[in-house]
Amino acid sequence: MNQDQRAAVHALLKLTSDLPEHDLHIDGMPFVSGPVRRQRVSYAISGNRRLSAWLLRPSAGAGPWPGLIALHPHGDAFAQGGDELAGQRGQREHHYGVNLAARGFVVLCPDLPCFGQQQAPANMPAGHSWEELCLSRALAYGRSLLAEALDQLRCAVAALLDYEKTAGLTVSAVGYGMGARTAAWLAFVDKRIGSLWMHAGLGQQAVLLEQGRLLPRHNLLPGLLALGLDQADIVADILPRPLGISFGRSDRIATPEAVAPVLMAVQERQKLFPKPQVAVIEGDYDHRFPLDVQQAIGDQLLGWSA
Question: Residue 108's pLDDT is what?
Answer without folding.
Answer: 97
